[in-house]
Amino acid sequence: CQVIVHDVNELTEKLFPIVEAMQKHFSAGSGTYYSDSIFFLSVAMHRIMPKEITRIIQVDLDLKYKTNIRDLFDEFDNFPEGAIIGIAREMQPVYRHTFWQYRRENPQTKVGEPPPDGLPGFNSGVLLLNLEAMRQSKLYNQLLEPTMVQKLTEKYHFKGHLGDQDFFTMVGMEHPELFHVLDCTWNRQLCTWWRDHGYSDVFDQYFQCEGEVRIYHGNCNTPIPED
User: Fold this and answer.
1) Could you report the per-residue pLDDT of 68-118, keeping only the tens digit for each?
2) Cα torsion 166, 169, 174, 178: sign
3) What is the C-alpha to C-alpha distance for residues 161 and 159, in angstroms, rounded to an integer?
4) Known Pfam families for this protein (predicted)?
5) Distances (CA, A) of 217 to 51, 96, 220
6) What gap in Å lies between CA 189 and CA 217, rounded to an integer?
7) Is 29 within 8 Å of 163 (Cβ atoms)?
8) What's the longest Cα–Cα distance across the chain?
9) CA 145, CA 132: separation in Å to the nearest integer?
């Protein structure tokens, strides 16, 4: 087993010029903080990792595994043609909230609507990055350009604070074909913040998840069930 440690400062240095433009749209702070770049690591991972690394699983720290992560790696084989990233849906109505203005202007939209037919957005706690496909996707690399980021944020009136997750969500509204949607059991989010903040009537439509949980995600400091 070979372990390679990467220097965070070194990575940030490579990342910053690529993601600087999107930080002002998807960061919590009002400015563009150099250190915030690391929250966009997944977005440009294909540009900063050595070419010989072709696939990466990126995960948050607040996870509990109920199965072998090798089984998750097998999900790469289920990517449909054109998909470059595997990601699970967001399980709270956070993007119903974020896209409120676009939704008001487009009452028939699926943007921000709950599954199975809606587009609730993504949660980046568990990510499958097919780096080779990301490198080769002309479309995806165009979407990283500052002018494209600006164009999409204007179209959707989007202002977020969740880093890479916001970028993937916005891109997924426009180009869902770039994503392989992981089953909710691979990223069973436990946070219920939005249930108590104005969305109790629709919350369960987003939060429900059938099947045996393979990875629990204790987001927003939510305790993870004991075995």
Assistant:
1) 999 999 999 999 999 999 999 999 999 999 999 999 999 999 999 999 999
2) positive
3) 7
4) Glyco_transf_8
5) 30, 21, 9
6) 5
7) no
8) 53
9) 19
- Give residues with Cβ within 8 angstroms of 103, minimum separation 6: 96, 109, 111, 112
Query: What average pLDDT does the segment 39-47 reach?
Result: 96
